[in-house]
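Appendix B, example 12.
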Amino acid sequence: MLLLFSERRMILDRYIELEQSFLKQNGYRLGSSSQFRHIYELLLSKIRNSPIIFNKNQYWGKLLTAEQIIDYIVSALRAYWIDAPADYIWSPVDPDSVMFKKPNYWSEASPVDTVALQQAAARYIEEPWMQLNIIDWYILNGFIFDELLRTSELTQSEALSRGIRREHVVPGAKSFNSVFDKLGRDRVKSIILWFLIPAVLLCLYYFGHSTIAALVLLPYTLYMAVYLLSLPERFSEKRKLKPVSCDFIQRQNRLSQLYQIVSASAFNPSRLKEQMTDNEGCGIHLNPVIQVIVDRAIERDPSVFTI
């Protein structure tokens, strides 16, 4: 038994040498405030305390696998983030602050590349020894945050075509954004067509400028005829669009609720799954990776998920 203990002690000493080399290699992003530091410390502890005794090459292979998978996940989460900080992975973002005006350091509506994140998450899931709540949390946040912002983008486009007021899309919104400028333009257009031009025509006739009035009246009459004849078709299109608009808004609100849950540092994974199942009835089908991660969390503890 003493021999076995001595042998394990020697192996652990070798582990420490490899760990120091690994940490030195990643030193540029392992500062005291680095989000990488906590993950690497947890992963090193898991490998070090594994019941399986690894030789030098196996241990180094584990470290490189962990580093590669973490890098893939982080790259996917920050794919469209220009000059993201080297020691930063993710932190909760208030969706309302970026829904209608993306930060200038994002090149897309969302910083997340969900295709790359799915591939990275699939590799992570294939390495069950790497499972950490904090990594699960990053992945869940990335997928749901991206889905929320992409849906918000569609909702804005739909609202623009329908003339829906911003406060109907985002409860509590107090000001218009550029995407809703169309509402003001429509009001001005209506005033010009129905009030201003007829008033100008009356003034021209009243002051004896009948020739000029006739020149204005002819194109105005043609335009109004086309406008009035097309009203039934436009009204029909708007009626078709209305339920779609409601679906987009409902979808956005449900995704916002999901994001509020997963962005917290602790939540009930069973209730999260219930809400995800309920959302599927409304046509919200999230990335299957999310389901796998939530199911694994429930197996570990059906009541509490914490980071």
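Strands lie at 266-267, 305-306. The chain has two domains: 2-132, 160-295.
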